[in-house]
Amino acid sequence: MVAIGLGLLAVSGLYNVAATRPHFRPVDHLIKFALRRSISLHSLGVLLPDLTDPALAQLGREHFATGCAPCHSQPGHARHPIARGMLPSPPRLEGAASRWETRELFWIVRHGLKFTGMPAWTGRDRDDEVWAVVAYLQRMPHDDDTVPAREKRTPALGFGIDEPSPLARCAACHGDGRRRPVHASVPVLHGQKEGYLARALSEYHDGRRQSGIMEPLAAVLSAEDIGRIARHFAEADRPAAVARPGDARVARGRRIFREGVPRQELPACRSCHAPETSAQFPLLDGLSGHYVEAQLGLFRSGVRSGTTHGRIMSVIAERLSPEQIADIAAFLDSGGERAPVPAEARREGE
Amino acid sequence: MARPARVLACTCSSAMLPLAGCAGIQSALVPKGGEALDIDPLFWTSAGVAMAVMAMVTILVAVALRGPVRWRQVLSREWFLTGGGIVLPIVVLTFLLVYGFLVMQAGATRMSAAGEHVVTVTGKRWWWRVVYRTPEGREVESANELRLPVGRKVMVRLLSDDVIHSFWVPQLAGKLDMIPGRINVLTLEAAEPGISRGQCAEYCGGAHALMAFHVVAMPAAEYDAWLAREAMPARVPASAEEERGAALFTANGCGACHTIAGTRAQGRLGPDLTHVGSRRSIGAATLPNDAAAFARWIAENDHIKPENLMPPYRNLAPDELRALGAFLDLLE
């Protein structure tokens, strides 16, 4: 009987789906109950990483400002008038961390929610990026009531770049050459090869390279924008290497970088990653160990093997053990070839 | 054609089909040198004896089933059973065994005669590293092709540094395994100039079936001249197209794995390319050796020879691939 009744209701068209008409209260309760139960159940298998690093939350905040705030607003800002017309209304997220378990927040950001307008994370298999947003949600300040409503700004609608220049948006995460990038998972761009930078932005633009953070930003760029940004960073000086005392790990990484591992059919990194090789092959000196490890992991697991260049690197990365990846990451983190080499390593290389 | 006739025709023609495989540059039945020439009569003798025994047994069975009573009585005599069932096999098999020992021994005696001319072949996944030692003691590296001087005994040292491979040139010798940590020695001697083909004869992983090579036997004087040329550094690019190819070779990091003597490319992971243009094939006898094949191989090697260890360079534009192909093809 109930099924027939619901069927007739659907056929008749009497149920009003207008966003201007809220659900009947019992229907609203039922939907919200089902939603909470579904999120709770499906997020059960999620393993929590360490989210204590404030820099991770800072990266999450930068993405939130362009990727989430247009609908959800952000602390100290008003709700966008268009977002206010949505049903269900995108909730403000101050205090969301106390309403949801951490694993539930991750699951929602990663997968999105049907019928709500909440989209899934755009970078396929980039769960590592989702955690930055979760870290920010956990640390999100409560709305600042001292700012009078009249003076509150509204975040720009549209997932793009509202700053006067796209470069300001780049610098917010990647640093300005003197300031390091906001988090170790974000690469230094200054002094990188122009060809590589333009290719990376084009790959993000076309969705060939996966990133929930970079794809939306690159999607709105024109070919001229991409060329201008690539040129800007390529012409900048590479930030001075942070000289760190080299440990055994760095020495092993240096060896792999310079000589490869013949018995594993592994060529030396520097035979391609050097200033004099193709402009499409990026320089690696001074990249953070975190970034190097994460990207080699993406090559190994095939997430970054979708492009022609990524395919080359995937073939090589599959031959590396996790320990060797950590060694290479430690070496590059210590400044790579630009770092002062300890005396005993210099002798070894001769 | 009536049905039984057609069946007979079909059976006959499919029985003949394998015979087509008996000819050609990779056939043990067309021996062209050393050990293979010795093994050849052993094969035909064994095969002949086996067929004679088969014919004899078939006739005896037919007689035992259908023959005249007197013949059948003879078959059941004790002296016949002892003679045909014990004495005959012992005599025939002993003859074959001794004959076989004598023939196979030849390999060991020949080895002592060789020694001056040494080639080291290392089985790789999935190609062959070939290193010649010149009379002056210099080492000259090549790959995926073996050149032999006609009439000279050449000692071939067989190595592997990954998995077990097996070196087999059916027209010249029997097969011999290449085992990591061991040096197996085979003596080859080409009896006449010509080209034959060898193949890895021990399953060694993904691209095993496409791990082959050519053996080029040439008159001794020509061989000496060839080896002297082979020891020289690579030809310098002459045309603009070749120069562009050489620049692309460097820029794309090809030197990480490949050596071109006389240039900065000194990689040791893949085949030496110093004189690659003069070889008969590329990809270990997978593709012919021409500019178009080089271009195809660089971009599509993972489809041409699945699981081979070289990354596919599909990042290169068609004109870049053409330039690289032209450059490599002229490295003679």
From TrEMBL, chain A:
Q: Does the keyword Lyase apply?
A: no
Q: Which domain of life is it from?
A: Bacteria
Domain (Cytochrome c) spans 55-141, 153-237, 248-336
GO molecular function of the protein, one example? metal ion binding
Q: Does the keyword Transport apply?
A: yes
Task: Cite the entry's keywords alphabetically.
Answer: Electron transport, Heme, Iron, Metal-binding, Transport
Name it.
Cytochrome c553
What organism is the protein native to?
Chelatococcus caeni
UniProtKB/TrEMBL annotation, chain B:
- Annotated signal sequence range: 1-23
Molecular function terms in GO for this entry?
copper ion binding; cytochrome-c oxidase activity; heme binding
TM regions (residue ranges): 46-67, 79-102
Which locations, inside or outside the cell, does it occupy? Answer: Membrane
Q: Name one GO biological process term.
A: ATP synthesis coupled electron transport
Q: Print the keywords alphabetically.
A: Copper, Electron transport, Heme, Iron, Membrane, Metal-binding, Signal, Transmembrane, Transmembrane helix, Transport
State if Amino-acid biosynthesis is listed as a keyword: no
Query: Cytochrome c domain location, by residue?
Result: 240-332
Q: Name one GO cellular component term.
A: membrane
Catalytic activity of the protein: 4 Fe(II)-[cytochrome c] + O2 + 8 H(+)(in) = 4 Fe(III)-[cytochrome c] + 2 H2O + 4 H(+)(out)
Q: Where is the Cytochrome oxidase subunit II copper A binding domain?
A: 114-229
Domain of life, per UniProt, equals Bacteria
Stored InterPro entries: CcO_II, CcO_II-like_C, Copper_CuA, Cupredoxin, CuRO_CcO_Caa3_II, Cyt_c-like_dom, Cyt_c-like_dom_sf
Q: Which Pfam families match?
A: COX2, Cytochrom_C
**What family is reported?**
Belongs to the cytochrome c oxidase subunit 2 family.
Protein name (Swiss-Prot/TrEMBL): Cytochrome c oxidase subunit 2
Source organism per UniProt = Chelatococcus caeni
> Lineage of the source organism?
Bacteria, Pseudomonadati, Pseudomonadota, Alphaproteobacteria, Hyphomicrobiales
